[in-house]
Queue: 3 jobs
Job 1
Amino acid sequence: MYSLADFDFHLPPELIAQVPLATRSSSRLLQVNGNQLADRSFSDITTLLQSGDVLVFNDTRVLNARFRGTKASGGQVEVLVERVINATTVLAQVRASKSPKPGMRLRLSDAFDVEVGERAGEFFVLHFPSDALTLIEQLGSLPLPPYITHAANEVDAQRYQTVYAKSPGAVAAPTAGLHFDQPLLDALQAKGVRLAWLTLHVGAGTFQPVRTEDLTKHTMHSEWYNISPDCVETIRQAQQAGRDIIAVGTTSLRALESASRSGQLMAGSDDTEIFITPGFSFQTVTRLITNFHLPKSTLMMLVSAFAGYDRIRSAYAHAIEQRYRFFSYGDAMLLDRESAR
């Protein structure tokens, strides 16, 4: 049985990528194939996939979900929208010197007021005066991860979105997808690699630390996903032909495996709180493209479950030694599923 400490490692701070590279597909790619490690360029992905394989992308779009504001008393607040519930209602994290009370009004971006509703765990319900998505996109700011130290700028507004992002609702990017540009997508399709799309709106909980050594006591954050019948059919055809199903990012993997809990991938929408740790039985995904993740994070546990704990430890040690760039704007790995080889 693994504990939280088993997923810790020392990362030199200078390896945390603060800005994106000039070209998306010029990042590095560490291929982890069994016990073999190969240092590659991300553009090599065209040679590492075969005709008939399926790449499954998450087409979520990151909202301008962060607001600064004030209480009626003048106290400062910071709001991070977690989820848009309906046209004028959201769930949000609210940081303030004292927790807001139901009925309290908050002035956001010095432009509009929201009313605080009931508390929902670590979140608050906020009622917007008009269409929430419109106000968020027009007056909010891009919520860069906490380990990126600069304020979001025009470069981030483009580069912290995938080139295929279209479904607004995330508060963090599906970062494995940031490595793909349109020429690379075109080259993959020209080779016969099939592209499939799903949506999972990444929540702020993706950055929440695991606070208990006993992993069975960790409560996973909830995220909404949708998988279309077309996506399911593309994957089934590839499976029948014996081809690989490659999840682009842990968010795509979480959606696919959540929708496969019956043993067969099913189309539809749902909330998932799936917590993948070593010993998990994968049903659909056979390969995974992913960035390097934070120590002690649920995503470190996920990739350890997928590729094997010892292999991930070796891969991360190699990446640190070879000065790979880490986290959202960093480099990537291509992992084979341990049980699929």
Job 2
Amino acid sequence: MRIGICCYPTHGGSGVVATELGKHLAERDHEVAFISYAAPLRLTELPPRVSYHEVEIEQYPLLKHFPYTLALASKMAEVARLKKLDLLHAHYAIPFGAAALLAKQIVTERQLKVVLTLHGTDITLVGNNASFKPVTTLTIQAVDAVTVVSKWLRQETLRQFPIDRELSVVYNFIDPQRHDSEVCPCIPDRLRRSQRTLMHISNFRPVKRVRDVVAVFAEVAAAIDCRLILVGDGPDVPVARELAEQLGLLDRITFVGVVDRVAPLLAAADLLLLPSSTESFGLVALEAMASGVPVIASDVGGIPEVVEHGVTGYLTPVGDVHRMAQYALQLLRDERLCRRFCDAARARATMHFTYEKHVPAYESIYRRVLGAEG
């Protein structure tokens, strides 16, 4: 198959999953064309059967805001003709899903199909905005197939939008080999270190509740020798830094910034903190588990479909900083318990969330919309 993938090129979950999907599809002998305004973060080089096509952004005096969605649709149509694409797979409803529908109407000489994957905030935040909701609804109804990254997101989409169609759950996934080589051999040594390491990885938006991350760390740091590593960037990085300075913890916190591969960093982690107010899946929790790192997270959204409470980590109500800290101390003080959680986290990730299981699910959907199921 010849597949166009449209996604955000940033370090958010939708862009990461879209990029990894495209690379695995190419390994399975499909032709894949990425279309975005910048090269996806995890597409540092172009493997065989993969191409990248940049949407040019220009400025015109008569336009107050550049019409990116229209430029995107034109580029999708151009690439569809150039690469003779069979389908466009849009990751995120706005603008990619809407632009893909427009591209489908432009390319009249081919029966171009559109598959849409909903990732979460395109439903709960962006798409649900009054300015975008009618377009989001039309997009979901009009594409040829829709997937969602969790059962929770399927229910939330049906609750918030007046739609009547099938929404297929296809979970996010990891490549176990990447974590095998870079992380898992380090687990025994990691657990014997005197200084323990807590980690948080995100885009540092308000929904990630980074103040809670620092507050949990403060309570843990008052009891044991530990450090906090913050990975990523976003508007709330200064918030985390300011709170850390107020609490006298700045010298025990490392701000790493954006990285394209998190597995090497997770090799140093004992726990991942994810106190978000909402997560449709929680890809970073899965990546931590694949690295044998237990997760302490909020009991919201799709996280309970990933993290098994009391087995691979702990779940708490949103904002319950004290309970998160107590769970963290419980694990960090008990090497045998922590090792059991590490092993269980790794086992759950590799049993239920590998690319070998979920990439074929996307292929099956592609075949179905192209009329080649069987």
Job 3
Amino acid sequence: MRPQSLYSYFDSKHAIYDAMYAQGCRQFVAGQARWKTSGDALADLRMIGRYFVEFCTDDPVRFQLMFQRTIPGFEPSAASFAISVESLATLQAHLATLGIDDPAALDLFTALGMGLADQQISNDPGGDRWIRLIDTAAEMFFNHVALPLHHTLRSPTPQPEEQTT
């Protein structure tokens, strides 16, 4: 296709980027629909972390468009961004099934995934230096966020009644 013919389909370069952004978001949501969750919080956190980082590292250009906002002046349209919001809501709902419903915990989990993906793409493209750390990062997150929740969710051990004299 010659560049001129693209503009018969799109109003501008930003409209092309928006279509690519929306396509990437739909691909991400489709992958989320195939998550095989176990109900085991740590196993699920590992699985979600692997899915995210592998999605990002499979297509670094898509990663930059969707997650890094590297194109000056580009903002996704409301319709395209809504797909992204839907995928974040899916993650939030899944974390809630694991007992993790603090918005700060969601932010921390997404930041861990973004950091690992960015490091992998930037510093070891095609390798696995940071991909190998996904399970460790999930364990750290679990130990910091989920494990304390699981301890407080358990019913307290009955204490012997105080003796009165």
